[in-house]
């Protein structure tokens, strides 16, 4: 009986050992299979991410990307692949179709500040996250339309400089210098319209003063544009306005150097005898009266100075090299001050 019991115990011990051995081998192989499966799956995921999901190397950062109104999913996906927004148009279509969002794409201009992966891009076009933020653009007082074209053209991607100049130059002086906020996809037509409306709004605030002065708005704008260039403060602008209106009333040549900045890009101390005698309609040393147009965009202060001139008998003025303005009633006095302050 004891022998049978021992034999039975021995049998169970061996069986247990065998089962434990088999179980351990299964566990080891199972872990190995799991590990291999994870490695295989990870490789596939990584390959898909690198080849499909991650942003392309030529991702269009800070560049407008457009989905036209009425564009299909296929057209959008193919366009995004062409422009480097996604790596695969097929993958983008599959993702949007799988999520059931294929009919929820928002048309319009999109702008990405940094490279985005396909999932982020897909979400952006589904919810209409355009990424457009207003751009702050300052137009300085006295700026010409040519300078405005360069300022806006350097910051707005839909801005056509050539077309702007063609439409803006006839309105020289009527586009108000100010700080503007435009979306990156603003066009030259919108900029021109906004600047002209801004001018009209500012002029409306001083309409009563303009009407009291009694001269045409165009004359006032031209005079103000000269004052903007000729003086840096309100007092001098009003006194110079008095000089220039006095000269016009006496049928004298204006002889304003600032007009040459507009036509030749030269300041007072750069002008030559040849410049002063040139057959240029803006040459106020040759042609009497106001120039044919404004030489830039005057500020509200210069517009007001033009219609509120200081009443005096001065007919001449000059600015020394320290930008201090000196006034004279006679030509002889003017020449004396010119020798005194300019050495000529």
What does this structure look like?
The protein has 344 residues and is mainly α. The protein folds into three domains: 65-127, Dna Ligase, domain 1; 136-203, no CATH class; 213-342, no CATH class. It is built from 14 helices and six strands. It has helices at 2-53, 73-82, 89-98, 118-127, 145-153, 161-168, 188-205, 207-213, 217-230, 234-249, 258-263, 273-276, 300-307, 331-342, and strands spanning 65-67, 108-110, 135-138, 179-182, 316-319, 325-328. A hairpin with a 5-residue loop joins strand 5 (316-319) and strand 6. Helix 10 (234-249) crosses helix 13. The longest helix is centred in the N-terminal third of the chain and has 52 residues, at 2-53. The chain is elongated. The model has no long low-confidence stretch (mean pLDDT 88).
Question: Which descriptors would you attach to this protein?
Answer:
344 residues; mainly alpha; Dna Ligase, domain 1; 3 domains; two-stranded antiparallel sheet; two-stranded antiparallel ribbon; 6 strands
Concise account of the structure shown:
This protein has three domains: 65-127, 2-Layer Sandwich (Dna Ligase, domain 1); 136-203, no CATH class; 213-342, no CATH class. Helices cover 53% and strands 6% of the residues.
């Amino acid at each position: 009986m004891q022998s049978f019991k021992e034999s039975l115990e021995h049998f169970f011990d061996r069986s247990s050992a065998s089962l434990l051995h088999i179980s351990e081998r299964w566990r080891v192989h199972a872990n190995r299979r799991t590990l291999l499966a994870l490695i295989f799956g990870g490789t596939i995921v990584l390959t898909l991410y690198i080849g499909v999901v991650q942003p392309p190397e030529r991702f269009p950062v800070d560049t407008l990307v457009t989905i036209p109104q009425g564009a299909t999913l296929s057209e959008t996906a193919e366009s995004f692949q062409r422009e480097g927004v996604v790596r695969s148009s097929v993958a983008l279509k599959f993702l949007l179709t799988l999520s059931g969002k294929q009919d929820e794409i928002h048309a319009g201009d999109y702008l990405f500040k940094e490279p985005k992966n396909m999932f982020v891009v897909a979400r952006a076009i589904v919810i209409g996250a355009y990424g457009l933020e207003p751009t702050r653009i300052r137009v300085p007082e006295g700026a010409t339309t040519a300078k405005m074209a360069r300022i806006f053209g350097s910051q707005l991607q839909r801005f056509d400089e050539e077309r702007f100049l063609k439409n803006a130059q006839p309105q020289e002086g009527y586009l108000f210098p100010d700080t503007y906020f435009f979306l990156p996809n603003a066009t030259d037509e919108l900029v021109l319209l906004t600047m002209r409306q801004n001018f009209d709004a500012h002029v409306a605030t001083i309409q009563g003063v303009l009407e009291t002065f009694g001269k045409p708005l165009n004359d006032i704008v031209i005079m103000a544009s000269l004052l903007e260039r000729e003086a840096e403060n309100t007092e001098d602008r009003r006194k110079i306005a008095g000089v220039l209106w006095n000269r016009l009333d006496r049928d004298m040549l204006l002889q304003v150097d600032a007009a040459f900045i507009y036509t030749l890009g030269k300041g007072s101390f750069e002008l030559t005898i040849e410049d002063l005698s040139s057959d240029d309609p803006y040459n106020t040393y040759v042609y009497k009266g106001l120039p044919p147009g404004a030489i830039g965009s005057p500020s509200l202060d210069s517009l007001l100075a033009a219609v509120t001139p200081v009443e005096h008998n001065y007919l001449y003025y000059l600015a020394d090299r320290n930008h201090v303005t000196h006034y004279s009633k006679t030509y002889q006095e003017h020449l004396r001050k010119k020798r005194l302050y300019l050495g000529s």
